[in-house]
Every structure is written in structure tokens, then in C-alpha cells.
Amino acid sequence: MIYVLVVFVPPLVAWMRGGPIKALINIGLTFLFWFPAVFHAIYIVREHDRLEAERAARRKYESDLREQEQQMREYDEEYGDDDD
Fold it and tell me: What is the pTM of this model?
């Protein structure tokens, strides 16, 4: 759906996914010619999606790490710490 908007209103997509500065750049590109604005909007969408995927992976990694640390603490409490 977002790519349909990219084709018809690239500045709107640039605003939604990239913020006001990228939208202003996209508006300038739209006035120059339509194709650069579309390519710029596609770049913004792909960059936004990549960053969101990285954030999700980082959150999952941190969650898994906390879970593993909790399991290690529970193990140490149950079987004792034999580091001595």
C-alpha cells in the first residue's frame, strides 16, 4: 500500500516515514521532476523499514539475553554457585 502512495504522492510518504526535512527535500525533487521524488520516497521507505527491522532484532536480542541471565540466576540459586 505504501508503494502506491509513493507513486502518487511521494512528499506525503516522505513526511510519514522520514519527517519534515526529508519531505521538504522531496517536495523540491517533485518540482524538479516527478521521478527523482519517487526514487527518493522509495529510498526513505526502504531505509525506514530497515531501521525498524534492526530495532526489532535488537529488542529481541536484549529480551533473549535478559531471559538467559534470569535462567542462569535461577540455576545458580537451585544448584549453588561452585566458583569457589
Answer: 0.72
